[in-house]
Structure formats: structure tokens, C-alpha cells
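Support request from a user on the community tier.

User writes: "When I paste my C-alpha cells into the form, the page sometimes reloads and wipes my input. The last time it worked, I copied everything first. Here is what I submitted, just in case something in the input itself triggers the reload:"
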């Protein structure tokens, strides 16, 4: 099935986003470049669509190569984001360095594509940082939801060690008590 047909057949906005990142990843793979989904789209993935965001945040070490691939796919620059008018898709590349462990990436397979997403613990730590350092009550709420939903699979030693390094351990412990 052709890419455009796959997009039209997507059963959800999240599936459409994953297909777009999958196509971008396919185009960048020969250059050794792998975009990583972060931010709200990662929360959307781990919350199975309960959280929704409009744009797709990616970390791509080789930003210029990613921009060229986005342009080849029909994306147009609109300030700091890239917009595709036919697909109603917005991509932002907020960073070239992943604030997390590359070995903990979650590889998602969808329709023959492989898409990388920030690891769950690193996403929780990212949202925890926003809750503590920016005072974001919404991020605090999503940390609690993710901790609760994945309580049996989390690497607590990693979470606590990183939270200790980042000055967020007190809130992590508080939230862990709340979700027990």
C-alpha cells in the first residue's frame, strides 16, 4: 500500500502521526539518522491516546538532514515548526540531543515502519522536571497517570537515581505514594 493510502486508512490521529514519523525515519535511515518521538506525542503513545496533542515533537541529532527530508515530503516551514497542509500534520524538532538514555528507546512497529519513542522512564522524568521546575500541574497529573498505569513494569532504580540527579526525587516519591 502506498504511503498516502496508509495515511487515509489510519484509524486514529495517533496512527497517522506514527505513520508520518515512520516514513520520515525510512527516508533518513540510509543516512544513519533516527528521529525519536518525545514530548506530548510520547505521552499520547504511552497513554494509548488518552493524552492528545496536535504536533509531533522529535529529537533528531542531524536536524538539517531531517529538515531536508521533511521538505521532500511536502512539509513547509512555519516559524519553528514544519507543517504539511494536506496531512494537517505539524512537526517540531525542539532538540538534537535526547534527554534520556538511547538504550531505553521504545521501538514501535507499524505497517512495516519502525518508529523510535523516548523510553517510558525518561518520559516520566521529563514530565516530572516540568512539574517541579516549571510548576506544571498538568505534567504532574500525567506523571501520576503514567506511574499508575505502568507501576508493574517501571525501572524504579533508574527513575529514582535520575530523579535524584535532577532534583525531582521528592515529588517522584510523593507521586509514587499517591498511586499505590
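"...and here is what came back when it finally went through:"
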Amino acid at each position: 500500500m502506498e504511503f498516502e493510502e496508509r495515511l487515509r486508512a489510519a484509524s486514529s490521529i495517533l496512527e497517522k502521526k506514527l505513520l508520518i514519523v515512520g516514513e520520515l525515519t525510512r527516508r533518513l535511515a540510509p543516512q544513519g539518522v533516527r528521529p525519536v518521538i518525545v514530548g506530548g506525542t510520547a505521552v499520547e503513545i504511552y497513554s494509548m491516546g488518552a493524552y492528545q496533542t496536535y504536533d509531533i515533537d522529535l529529537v533528531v541529532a542531524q536536524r538539517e538532514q531531517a529538515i531536508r527530508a521533511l521538505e521532500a515530503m511536502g512539509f513547509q516551514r512555519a516559524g519553528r515548526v514544519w507543517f504539511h497542509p494536506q496531512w494537517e500534520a505539524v512537526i517540531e524538532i525542539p532538540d538534537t540531543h535526547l534527554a534520556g538514555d538511547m538504550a531505553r528507546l521504545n521501538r514501535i512497529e507499524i505497517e512495516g515502519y519502525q518508529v523510535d519513542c523516548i523510553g517510558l522512564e525518561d518520559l516520566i522524568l521529563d514530565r516530572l522536571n516540568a512539574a517541579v521546575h516549571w510548576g506544571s500541574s498538568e505534567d504532574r497529573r500525567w506523571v501520576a497517570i503514567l506511574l499508575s498505569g505502568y507501576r508493574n513494569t517501571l525501572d524504579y532504580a533508574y527513575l529514582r537515581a535520575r530523579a535524584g540527579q535532577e532534583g525531582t526525587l521528592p515529588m517522584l516519591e510523593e507521586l509514587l505514594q499517591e498511586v499505590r
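Agent notes: The reload is a front-end session timeout and is unrelated to the input. DSSP finds eight helices and seven strands in the chain. Strands lie at 36-38, 56-59, 76-78, 81-84, 89-95, 106-110, 113-117. Escalated to web team.
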